[in-house]
């Protein structure tokens, strides 16, 4: 019963994340303030999904059961209301106290998530106990290394939660770079680093292939130090450049690992194409970041960088992995199946590519076409995921 409760509320986090993905693409298409779009995409879609799957995966990866099984039910409304409050604040003349309330609400949800998982793994913080069975004994070295970086993700989430409240309320900040500092702490320090750490455990098993161990040993440390350097030294200086290089090494290394796994794998499932497209977008995104650090910004570059990394690297990877956990082909409702799933990935990736190229070329109407295609992809993803949840689990 306890496991079912955790699974049920973890799914609800993922489902709410899918709705935020649609809202994010609508906001981008209709020209909502940049801060609203970032909030819907990062605090809403990415981090809701990360929290949901974190509750489901992290305890098992540390050979534990979630110590506070009611935590997923408690954090969902906090994170949802907080993300909505933060998203609405830039669009309406609300009192500052309302925006602060949204930030505090979201931060409480984030702290609750870290507290629940931290208490669960408190006696195994290094991740030495991996829950890896004898059939996968050769994977234990990489599993332990990946586990060791999960507490770093928790630290970034706490730092990003504080930074969000501090920036909104006018308190002293950690990074001193405003909302952009909080965004980088959460997107790179939580989203990307958790993709690396969990991905090195999850994806090799999905694809039935082994990752190149030396690359794993490079990606994780680079992905751990890069976000702090970038967030603390945004827009210039030697530390900003060092952080940009570290993030680029991490994303490029992860891309090489996944491409190697994809080529070695005897399997070809629709979900695998999400991370494949995601790492390609991520490489393009960090290439722009390197250009900012060593050459300078270009017109349309910052917006393209944000979309390539948040919707491309994180978004496409999340959507693809979700299709692996929740296969559309098992559904019997209209449109359920791998073709619709592939269409959603195709719309997201094509729309993103068109939008990024249009932003860099300064062709606004073409960027809108790309955003419309991405909206179609987000809608298909939400339709498949929510339809499958309703069909298989009903109201549970």
From TrEMBL:
Membrane-spanning segments: 41-62, 74-92, 98-121, 142-162, 182-203, 215-236, 242-262, 274-298, 310-329, 341-363, 369-389
Keywords: Membrane, Transmembrane, Transmembrane helix
Name of the protein this chain belongs to: Uncharacterized protein
